[in-house]
């Protein structure tokens, strides 16, 4: 069986002018993730990421902790769901139907909990409607390209390989739901709980792929205890 590790990026810079960069904690999480992989005896044959900086930097920092040169391929199909675009286009539609959601928007998305509530509503609207009519990428388009990217990695790397894909929470949720044969409306349950730098493991053989485990962050807790650090975060 070949192995794929799906690794979420480290903590980004929520609330800053440029969200798409790792915070100091995010950089530490990425390095500690690489140290965990090294201590666990994981030898990567290849690494992939989207082209978002938080994904690429997490990949680089983690791979710096591993022995040897790990080839890194950037594939934009592993980018995160475009939440900003969806909020801009879809949130007003949802607000017209929900007074509670309208009040949430009116008071402003000032903290990560309120932001998550907005993402919840917008994501579930997105997967249940053909939102291409609003000039944005549809769920069918997005999920289709993510599934195709995974299939291409499996085909290109072949049997007996160990691969890491450094990506984002929405992409990981989409891949996990796909592997489990679930629908778009069942995907959000895997999106909300994804920890920064958590690891999910897939096994594959030929075109067959299965989920081994999801969203493990126990190594961050362990390394945090060893080093006197608080390494676990959602955002």
TrEMBL record:
Keywords: Hydrolase. Coiled coil: none annotated. SMART domains: PGAM. GO terms for molecular function: hydrolase activity. PANTHER family: PHOSPHOGLYCERATE MUTASE-RELATED, SERINE_THREONINE-PROTEIN PHOSPHATASE PGAM5, MITOCHONDRIAL. This is Histidine phosphatase family protein. It comes from Seongchinamella unica.
